[in-house]
Hints:
Blueprint: E1 9-11, H1 19-28, E2 35-37, H2 46-66
Parallel strand pairs: 1-2
Amino acid sequence: MEQFHGKAFGVFDPQKRESPKKAWEQLVAPRRVATMNSPRYGPQDDLGALLRAAVEAICLTMDARTGAAGM
């Protein structure tokens, strides 16, 4: 994902006790994702902030490539 300048954010089920450990072993350790987060997307939640920042960065990159006005 990184070689193509993409972003991958892992999400684990906080209701399952082994979910964070399993997610770490399968996703973070082999560098398949940058971070692991609980599935909360609100204004004060980490995953929500990460996703909004990633979308904004993509939009800014697209604007720079096309010469369009920024956000």
